[in-house]
Acyl-CoA oxidase C-alpha1 domain-containing protein (Rhizopogon vinicolor AM-OR11-026), 100 residues
Amino acid sequence: MTVRRQVKLDTHGLERQALNHPSTYRLLPTLSRAFVFFEPGRYAIKALDEMEQRLANRDTSLLPEIHALLCGLKVLVSTHGVDVLWAVMEVPSFEAIILS
């Protein structure tokens, strides 16, 4: 089994395992939440396709639902994006880790 190691040496003279790096625990939940957005995205695409077909027949009944869906999705993804930016800014740079 291969273990990826990087930066700062431990007491045995080995670099710290990448999965045990403090930044990994801070960023992994963020990455996993990003994958959760695929499903609402797929649903939104299907809903937009349905609306496009209905609009071709001059049926605008889905407009309020699509508007609400996309507004909610925009807020959710934007809020997550801001959280990601804060999480990344809190991760110490590799230079700071190496120097410490």
In short: The chain has one domain: 5-99.
